[in-house]
Amino acid sequence: MAASVRNALRTANKINDALLPQFENLKQRKIGRSAFAVYVDYKAVFVDFFKGARSKPLRTSLGLGLLGFGYVVYLNNPDDDSYNDTLLDNANELLQVGERIRNPSSDVYTQEMLQLFYQGKLRRQSFGLFSLMMQTEFGKDCDLYEKHCYYTKTRWVDLWKYVRDFGILGHWYKLETAMIDYDVNQEDLDGLVDDLTEQNTLSKKIMRYGKYCMDSFLQWGYGLIYSQDPQQSASF
């Protein structure tokens, strides 16, 4: 690579000397000196990097791996469209589930986010590797004085109260967590378990009573046979 650059500089100098002999050659001109200095600096950086990579391969591999992982995380940083699509998909899935078996926590969180979405009070704040979905006090179309006044704006120490979701690697954490067991109503399930427990207890009582009646009937029948024919009862 260095030889190719040197050949290109020689060719440019020859052309410059042939066409414009009254000027200095390209390497001695101001722009030429600056470009050559940049080339020398980058060359030194790459040479030092390859020397360090050969002397400490494990450290270099770890650094390159972290750099590649950070680049992948940066490329998969979720955007507004992914949040809106996930929110609407969650709402549609909840609508397909009956109200009796619908998870109340999933329904309440999704409906709350839908209301903020339609009011235009959700704003994504990107930090490169991850994003935060923030709740704003005013919608996009609102232009009141309080929205622009410095003294009514939210302070930095209170911003964490307005964080509604955390997104990384193409996923929104709270949106996906809220949909876990979205078709399971725990309160209704607990009531069903109680009903089954009561039915099971009643069935046990009925079985004990039936067994008691059967034992009583057998004792009565055995006593009746014994009173009529003692020899037959003895053989029995």
Structural class: alpha+beta
Q: How many E-type strands?
A: 4
Q: Encode the helix/strand succession as letters.
A: HHHHHEEHEEHHH
Distance between the termini: 113 Å
Helix content estimate: 55-70%
Oligomer: single chain
Shape: elongated
**Number of helical elements:** 9
Index terms:
236 residues, alpha+beta, 65% helix, single chain
Quick rundown:
With 236 residues, this protein is α+β, with helices and mostly antiparallel strands.
Overview of the molecule:
This protein has 236 residues and is of the alpha+beta class. Among the domains are: 24-54; 80-182, no CATH class; 186-213. 65% of the residues lie in helices and 8% in strands. It has 9 helices and 4 strands. The chain has helices at residues 2-19, 30-55, 57-75, 80-95, 104-118, 145-148, 173-178, 186-228, 230-235, and strands spanning 122-126, 131-135, 163-168, 171-172. The chain has a 4-stranded antiparallel sheet. Strand 3 (163-168) and strand 4 form a beta hairpin. Helix 2 crosses helix 3 (57-75) and helix 4 crosses helix 5 (104-118). It starts with a helix and ends with a helix. Mean pLDDT is 72; it is low at 232-236.
How are the elements arranged and paired?
Blueprint: H1 2-19, H2 30-55, H3 57-75, H4 80-95, H5 104-118, E1 122-126, E2 131-135, H6 145-148, E3 163-168, E4 171-172, H7 173-178, H8 186-228, H9 230-235
Antiparallel strand pairs: 1-2, 2-3, 3-4
Helix pairs in contact: 2-3, 4-5
